[in-house]
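Lab meeting notes turned into a lecture example. A postdoc, R.K., suggested we walk through two folding results consecutively so the class can see how the record format repeats. The first protein's sequence and structure tokens come next.
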Amino acid sequence: MSVATRVDLDRCTPSQLWAALPPEVRLAAARSLYAHDWGGTPTKREADATLMMALRFREAAVRQLPVERRAQYLAKTANPGDSIASSLLLALHLEERRSMLAAFLDALGIAHENGLIAEDQEPAPPDESKLAQAAKDLRAKFPADDVDLYLAALYVLDRETWKGVRPLI
């Protein structure tokens, strides 16, 4: 069953989408978050703070845990909050599913670097017919559940820009 059928996407928050993911996808996302060099952003520290609160550990104790153990705990955390859930969803797609992102953005004619849109570029909502074709092309190349999750994440993380994907999920 697709994650998109387990939540009301129109009211869904990033943390609710995260909670609806299968355990193995959450673990892959958590591993991706810890594996990626986020360029000095506080993402890993924020994830560790989430673990500190969930596990009732001190900061030093969390930081002493091996990264794999932190990823496992983070994957099992029921509600990491919207900020970390957003980062986890992004990390999953940027680390594990980058080729799908690149294919989608190429089909839409959105400039990117290996699936990552430049921070200074704010894409306009894509044309619905282009979106429909891009989604159809993705479904021909990638697992349907992965495509549904990607489209759902786009929609939940930025409903204004990606409102056209809603009917495609």
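The second example is placed directly after the first for contrast:
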Amino acid sequence: MSIQNLSDYSPDSSYSLCSLDGVKRNQSSAYYVVTLSTSVIIAFLSPVAVAGNSLVLAAIWRDQSLRTPSYILLFGLALTDLCTGLISQPSHIAVRVLCFSELQLVKKEETFLLYTKALGEFCGTYFGSLTVILITFMSIERWLHMTRRSLLSVRRSCYIVAVSSLLLIPVVVFRLLHVFQKTTGLVSNLIMFILLLLCLVTTPISYFKVFRIIHRHQEQIRANGSSQNFGQPAFNLAKYKKTVVFILYILGVFYISFLPFLVFVGLSFRYQYCELEIFFHISLLFLFLSSSINPLIYLWRISDIRNGVKQLLEKLLPVSQPVAS
């Protein structure tokens, strides 16, 4: 569809932009309750994601000692979560606000609604897919690091983030075309389903291997009374375990956030979209949840980031000292 034709929809089709498959239909009261509730929650999550991830990014950027492969991947994940809270979530909220409006206003703002929905679809698919890929790479990096076979450097980690970002663009553009054509996009859904399923399987396998390595080395330490067989001090082993436990929290949030959406995409091949729209909005809420929870986990579990954010806040918000008498 050409740019000139983007505003040529018939007036009766205005509300069709509010549905998943581009079909105008009367919705049940349960649908409006669910979509309104999820939209309100997402509106609260958005500033939390922006503020939290901005602080995390600033803390990593300011500290030269955090320029490691693990933190580079973490930086990429925080940047993706920031963009989700800054672009994807507000776009979704704007679409829902217009869809709750009177028909006359929807007709008047139909072009705005179209472009806003397209922006939300593009950014939501792009940043959501990039989040999945980065979390998977983080798990693989931990596994390779524990086996002492890691080939990742800071530069290579930057390449991974950059290449992953570029490779996703054709897939997302292909999905964006379905928004303008008002089609369901089964092919793009299939690509997303395969990508998400592959990452959901690869990530726990990597961590399972990590814990097997840790368990085996602990058994060797207990059997020999030292940590020499592990090839490094016991303190480092504890540090690695702490890092892995931290990423397991990320993994838990990852599954809670993305598994409902994976189920939705899988069901979309079997059922009509009109039967899944309520579940779609619920799964979308969980999808956006990770962007707000992840930075809270960083601040809770990573002392370097917590101290960096604390120093940054003290610099930005200096507390006046009492004048000595």
